[in-house]
Write the structure tokens for this entry.
Amino acid sequence: MLKKHRYSFELFWLIAIFLLPLPFIQTLSNGLPIIYQSEFRAIYYGTIAYVWMLFAIYLSTKPKWLDRLIGLPEIYMVHGMLSIAAIILAYLHKEGTTSSGWIKTTGDWAFDLFLGLMIYSLIFMAGWLTSRIPFLNTIKKFLEKIFKHELSVWIHRLNLVATALVFIHVQLISYITAIKPFMAWFDLATAFVLFSYLASKLVVPLTYKKGTVITNKLISDNVRELTITLPKRSEIQLLAGDYVFISFPDIQGLTEMHPFSLSNAPAETGTIVLAIRGDGDFTRALDQLENGTTVLIDGGYGRYEEFLNEQPQSANIVILAGGIGVTPLISTVEDNLDRNIKLLYSAHNQADLIYQDKISRWQTLGNIDCSVQVGRFKNNQVIQELPRGWQNNTVFLIGGPSKMMHHWIHFLKSQGAKSGQIYFEEFSW
Ligand SMILES: Cc1cc2nc3c(=O)[nH]c(=O)nc-3n(C[C@H](O)[C@H](O)[C@H](O)COP(=O)(O)OP(=O)(O)OC[C@H]3O[C@@H](n4cnc5c(N)ncnc54)[C@H](O)[C@@H]3O)c2cc1C
């Protein structure tokens, strides 16, 4: 039977939701004066909200150890959902407690700021949500002409100000600060998250690796291929199917890190190849890059290869790829040329189908079967292409537009596939 990689994800959720707030609630409940009994529940809500908010900030630092275990897209989803849950609890806290003066002011400011930022972020920063709700996605696409991604990132960072206000709010409540064991947890957790955040912004960038662009060419009407040499192969841990964050420190307008998937098997060559579609300001400006341009690289991130390693090596691999979402899967196939692979790859237009030469070469190997077409595959087409007994001996890798990925996940599950058999990574968070 195939292992269920989702166990780690579910365990992660349980730890975040229940285990983390436990020492805070425990120490608090031992020290709360009985005269506040009617507010106990609301005080606990506020405490859990703060712990979840701190955890959400920690997750935003892209912890690498968690990425390999769970995957950044899922981490960002937990980050978003925990923040929303925290704001709901903060509301219950606000409604269930009485306060005055600066205690009230700091609490109210923090809550209003969190609430406003949550509404903003649900549109601009929650790709996991907008990709599932077409209406929100339409609003996002329309407003993004003004509120560019980089601006949204800065606005989103105001959550730190709101968290600082909560910190001050708590420090002002004398009957809480009198509970020393609770305050020890509270201050330590805050200091740890602050330290992790500052390190991710100030120290981690110093560890980004420097690469060099050696070729930059168009491989279809709107897709550009960059080949980048890596500094020393041993210094950067890349797996096939990974993505890296890159920026170009010497080129104005290209200094923000953006994520792109590898389209080659990195271990073999000491270079990385990225296929990048011109979707916005950053990606369209890549045509100005000359050979020799310095690239900063942070990575690798991703779980396609980790997922395959968790499965029996004898499992067949079925790949459903659409549009530019094929890139990490091209890399994955290249690294697994001895496996039984079925690649079903489609794009809206003939011109958008990239790496057809590679795909034709794989076809000659005998164990890799590729179907490439313009326009999405039909359900019955896919079913016909699946290996015999696929419910027990096959894993599915999916990459492409969000809508397409969710369609196949839903369809495969409706045909009897288990969650642990399917892996996908979204291109939007
Ligand atoms: C894991 C992952 C792998 C990806 N791999 C590829 C790939 O191989 N090839 C490819 O063409 N594209 C890939 N993308 C998408 C690519 O990162 C975006 O298209 C690109 O960052 C858009 O930047 P822009 O300024 O050109 O466009 P914009 O118009 O600024 O943004 C278009 C959309 O991209 C998203 N985006 C913008 N900046 C960032 C950022 N810094 N971080 C995360 N999301 C951002 C936003 O949701 C935005 O709505 C990948 C994305 C992710 C998350």
Notes: The pocket of flavin-adenine dinucleotide is lined by residues 127, 144, 148-149, 243, 256, 258-261, 275-277, 279-283, 324, 327, 425, 427-429 (CB under 6 Å). The mean pLDDT is 92. The chain is about 50% helix and 15% strand. The longest strand covers residues 209-220.
